Amino acid sequence: MPRGYMREHFPQWRKHIMLWLAAPIVLISLTLTPLAVFQYKQYQSLIQQPQYGNDSVIMLAYQMEREALRFALALQDYLSAEYTTNTDVLMTRFDLFYSRVGLLEQNPGARWIKNSDDYVDGLQAVNTLIDKAVPIFESNNTLKAATRQQLADIQTDTAGLTLKLARLTFTANSAVYANFDKSNTLLREQSMLIIVVTIAQGVLMAIAIVATYLYIRRHQRQVAQLTELTQALELARDKAESANRSKSIFLANMSHEIRTPFQGLLGMINLLLQTRLNARQKDYVNTAHTSAQHLLGVVNDVLDMSTIESGNLHLNNGPVDLHALVKEVGHLMRTQATAKGLELTVTVAHNTPQWLHADSVRLRQVMYNLLSNAIKFTQQGKVQFEVCPNSANEPGIQIGVVDTGIGMSQQTIDMLFTRFFQADDVSTKRYQGTGLGLEISRTLIQLMNGTLHVSSVEGKGSRFQAVLPLGNATPIEVNAVVDADSLYAMATDGKSLRVLVTEDHPINMKVLSILLERMGHEATLCSSGACAIDALKKDVFDVVLMDYHMPDMDGLETTRLIRELPNPAGQIPIVLITADVVEDTRVRALAAGITAFAPKPVRLQDLHATFTACDLLATPDTAGRTTPDHNTPHTTSEDSPVDYSYHDTPLLNISIFSELCDLFPADNWATMTSTLFDPPHGDVPVLVALLEGHTTSKALGEQAHKVKGAAMMIGLQRLGELCAHIEEQCNADAQSLQFDAALLALSATSHDTQQALAEQLRTNNSAHDA
Amino acid sequence: MTDRRTALARLCVGSALVTLGIGSANAVSETEASLQISYRNGSQRTLTFNDLNGLTQHSIVTATPWHLGTPTFTGPLLRDVLQLANFEGNVVLASAVNDYNVTIPVDDLVQHRVVLAHSINGERLTLRTLGPLYVMYPLDSDETLRTSGVYARCIWQLLQIKEP
């Protein structure tokens, strides 16, 4: 994040760096270059100085003046000497003088004075003299031959030179010193320049340092800002996440809150429809039904949309029987299609996979949406629902919905998936719908990693093709769906029971009453324990369905109070309806006097099974159903020995037992069997002890009842029936109970049952572990 | 007057000795170039041109502060001359015709090819052309010779060398 952030928000920062680095460098080189040039020039001039030698113009001018004077002197001596022919000295002096002139003229140092008048003047005079004298001084002979006058002339000229030469010397001197001054000034200027440049460089360096420092500080500030920003962003992200979470919780709650009453509403309307209504009533109810259905659809769409928006839509994948699903959906839609006079064909290609790993609810939703759209927008003709496997290398399926409807223009197709868009804006009211359905479907398809293709010809029809690359799933054992209708049939074969329902939750009350009605029983509703007790006092019932959680008096408390009622109310079978399957609850419930348990949510088949287990549904002519080939305990004879063996009754009711096995872990069984069988406080040993007392008593009857209930509940069939027999005999005719036989049978049954239990548990456990 | 007389006398003596070598006025004769050597003990000796010419002749080509271009100076090496004259000392006290004096360290003569030139570019030096004898250092051969000290030792119009 930082690096991209920098480049985005400080795009110039690289250039800035370059500038900051380049500027000082350029400036420094700008100041150093002239300095270097100066130094070089100075060096050059310094080199040149020695080349001129120490023969400064002053020396040369002086020497010339000196030799001129000496020459003049020599001339005078020669002329004044009375008698001499020795010209050597004179010649020498002239030669020396001559040599000095050349030296001065040729000396590069003379350039300082070459333009001065004195120099020009002086040298001109000197050269004139030399020109005059050279012929005379050509050789010693010519010199000797020279006249006095000639020599005197030269002498005069030479003397006249001296002043000029003196002036020349002074000029030379001044020139040299002027030169010195110039050099000095130049040096001073150069030194000044060096100082200035050095200071400038120092200043520049200071600026560079300050600039660097400022830059570093700014950089640090930026880093601090970035850190702050990061922290703020993290905070914002956390806030957003928590907001999202609350939103999803809200959605989940709302979803539940809205859907539950709706289901209730629809359920009620459905039930209403099944009651006897006159034509008008039926009409009204149908309208209500349609509206409710429609509203539920809208609410579902809106909730789905909100879920999608907040990003909370997740698929609950599991094994889905595709073929069954397609049949179900087709079945559903066929009614709609037929109502409009359309033909609906459902085609499943022969090699379409049957079991897919998908969210069955959502898959159904997609199919439903596509089909209902097709039906909606088709006035006549047919709708084809095709399912085939996906293309060659892809897993999954393709779902195609083809209709001969009004079709869509290309424009419409392009805008099709925008929210709230309805294909026919002109007559939006003609085609009902929220416009969300297609978008939701598309989102769902996308969630399944699939694609949706649309093709259409206006006026001819459309094809919606969903490509879903779903994986295969292993088929699962589907418990034979017990059709509610068949149960109903089952129930009406048997007795119609009078059921007292004690339940505080109105919805649950309703559900139970519906169920019972469906089963053909008569339901009386009580919303509290007190009411139930009152009802039991006044009326006779066959069984009580007791809710566990109730205000004021809970289910167990009510049960205890009921048990204290005089018979037959006190003996009434009480079925506890609870989602709680904890062992502790069961034990307490049994202690309170609960006869049987029905799990929540209550299903028709569960109730039926419970009633059967409580032996409530056995009518006199169907008595043999659950206990085949069994001497009815009702036939008593004083002499004929009562058979307690129940040989033909199986020890364990396997189906109930298996069901319960799935619910409980193995250690629970251990607790339960110990509760039943372990001496001295186990239910069976207590019964045995009572039987040994050889006296019928209320306690014996109650104990037998207790064991029976418990045994029945957990599927110990033989034991339960035996105890039921004992109880009945105890209650009915105290004399008929043959204690010894019963004891024998009880011991044997108890022992066998325990063995069978252990073995069955072993088998079940190994099956589980496998 | 007296001073003039003595000066003249000295000059006469000097020039007489020089004349021994100089000879005729015009054409510089081979006998004109001569070097006077004064010894510590007071004795003197004169080397003639022939003496000098008898030694191995060397030529050095160098630019000088007093000449245009790079002339060639020809003559014996000064150290050879000293050797010939049995000169002893670590310095040479040289004096010129125009009373110029300079001290030349013998180390210089050992280290460098210092020539006692009698000719420049093949032509014999005369008094007018800063001869007849001109001590010349090989200035171009060594950067360290381009100092005023060295230039001072390039004595021209050499008359006499004296032991220290």
Write up what this structure looks like.
The complex is a heterodimer of chains A (770) and B (164). Chain A has 770 residues and is of the alpha/beta class. In chain A, 63% of the residues lie in helices and 9% in strands. Chain A has a five-stranded mixed beta sheet, covered by helices on one side. A five-stranded parallel beta sheet of chain A has the order 9-8-10-11-12, sandwiched between helices. In chain A, strands 1-3 form a two-stranded antiparallel ribbon. Chain B has helices spanning 2-22, 49-54, 78-84, 106-111, 148-153, and strands at 35-38, 44-47, 57-61, 72-76, 91-96, 101-105, 115-117, 119-120, 123-124, 134-136, 158-162. Chain B has a five-stranded mixed beta sheet with strand order 2-1-11-5-6. Helix content of chain B is 28%, strand content 27%. The termini of chain B are far apart. Chain B has five helices and eleven strands, in the order H-E-E-H-E-E-H-E-E-H-E-E-E-E-H-E. The interface between A and B is medium-sized, with 31 and 30 residues.
Average residue pLDDT of chain B: 83
Characterize the biggest β-sheet of chain B: 5 strands, mixed
Mean pLDDT of chain A: 80
Largest sheet of chain A: 5 strands, mixed
Shape of chain B: globular
- Given helix and strand content, the structural type of chain B is alpha+beta
Cα separation of the termini of chain A: 52 Å
The low-pLDDT segments of chain B are 17-31
Strand residue percentage of chain A: 5-15%
Given the structure, what is the number of helices of chain A? 25
Helix content class of chain A: 55-70%
- Portion of residues within helices of chain B: 25-40%
